[in-house]
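User: I'm new to structure prediction. If I give you an amino acid sequence, what do you actually give back? Let's try with this one:
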Amino acid sequence: MKTIFPWALAFLVCWGWAQVPPGYDAASFARIGVGVRAMGLGGAYVAIAEGPSAAYWNPAGLAELTSFQAEAMYTDWLRAGVFLQYVGVAGYIPLGEERPTLRIGQYPLTFGLNWFSVSIPDIPWVEETGEVGTFTAWSHLFLFSTALPLREDLSFGTNVKVFHDRILEGYSLGISLDVGLLLRGEVRGVPFQAGIATYDIGGPAIQWFETTGEPVVYLPWLVRLGGAIKLWEGQVLACASLEWALNRPRFERARLGVEVQAAWLALRFGWDQPLWKEPLPQGGEALAPGNWSVGAGIRAFPWLSLDYAFIPGRLGDSHLLAISLSF
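Assistant: Good question. You get back a string of structure tokens that encode the predicted 3D arrangement of the chain. For your 327 residues, that looks like this:
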């Protein structure tokens, strides 16, 4: 039974090449990323997948939680009045000295709940009467996650995702599924982790209501594959990942990240490199420009962490702040 999941995931990935129509890329806000630590590492997080934000990158990582954790993130994306909010919880709340846990056989089943939202306030709007007003556009993503160890070094996780947008009287609704695997091991004394996750399986639809034509848009079916190693007794973490969309161009990316841990302080650097080519003004083509990120984390107490990340951009810079609690 335990060997079925890796083969099932591989089948889903391969089957997608022939199934997903090209040209669909709805809910682009949901691909910005969550988790300030992950963003500081350039998004190369599919093989690390720690904390509640693991649900976004690879839900299999939730199987490693031994406590109840809560995480929150906020930023004005690109300093352009596009406000990102994220709150995630995962694990089991302790009740006194006990931590009641639901198990399948000998292994605990871990649950997570994440909410990611983007809001753009004060958008101008002209009524039919000529009266000028403003409105706020909202986009929401809810993740309902479960994770289970398949054996001591291999875990499996899944998300049920709900997408919801609201613009004036119009609103949208869509549901999708993610699955992921996370492997932990050691090669010649060097700890490593490897992860693969596939998102929005089948390129599901998002239906709009109360709008002209009530259009249907589609999510791209994405795959991320990554690895991470720990060096110098865990003080240095190096990670990398590749991602692409099945049967859909211009989603290919390579991500790299390095984290250096010194007592209560962690310093991070990341690089996010698109792998598609763009035309040059003088003719010819070149890889689309990549983007770097830096970050820092402070573990003030065993139960409290503070994280910061800086991501420069051609349209504006982003400063991300997060707080994480563990019980």
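You can read the tokens as a compact description of the fold. Here is one thing that stands out. Residues 1-23 have pLDDT under 50 and may be disordered.
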